[in-house]
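# step 3/5: fold
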Amino acid sequence: MDSLRGLGVALATPFDVDNKIDYEALLKLLKHTASNGANYWVVMGSTGEAITLSNQEQDEVLTFVKNNNPNNLPIVFGLGGSNTFALIKRLEELDLSGVTAILSSSPAYNKPTQEGIKAHFRLLADKSLVPIILYNVPSRTCSNMEASTTIELASHKNIIGIKEASGNVQQAEEIIASTSDDFMLISGDDMLTPALIKIGATGLISVLANALPNHFNQLTTLALNGNIAESQKFVNNLNELSDLMYVEGNPAGIKELLAQQGICSNSVRLPLVLATKSLQADISSAIRKL
């Protein structure tokens, strides 16, 4: 799907000091990313703290993004969980007008087998009115979607790609080699993007691009145009800052960086907590170097 080629920004959800959604700051973030190279937005992913928002809040954020999209960027909506039938019910209730695709992480906690993961996603894809992008993120789900599982699911007409965040380039290579050209493998790791694009990935869904969309647009575009070495130079310059984004959990790091840029506050919802003074200082130092 060409509209989802390039840079996707996994949008943070700004909160005010009372932990209510800060729509003024969200508008600022939308303008910042749209005007500096985002090709599409991912709403209510892990970085958006979807797990701590009510369904009503998620719906309101989605509506706000739809209504504040003058560049008409494609919108991907995050919808994952460990209760297959609850997800199907949620799909039936959602207003998916204006949504290009659903990004759905593999079930966590109940730790399904590979057969369970396949059954889960097949049923979700059968019921969804918009295409599904699989999301493999073992660091959060504690289980890896094996390459064979993704390859089998790729044959479903309503499953169009995978955000691969396993950190396993060999696994990504196997998926790309064994799926059709129109099945997208999207990098879910900012720093692995040139390596994954080199073997056939179609772009990146990025956390750090909330703050630095122009940098990530350039590194993604360079890689997609075959300039892997130049793209890697961007990555090398961003390594220190990228590592800091995860020292105390995502999105505590990226929200601190956004706060230092004057885009939104660094507020996160429990059980996440604000970046420590030490991390704040390290981020400030890294962004000055950059």
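# step 4/5: annotate
The chain has one domain: 2-227.
# step 5/5: archive (pending)
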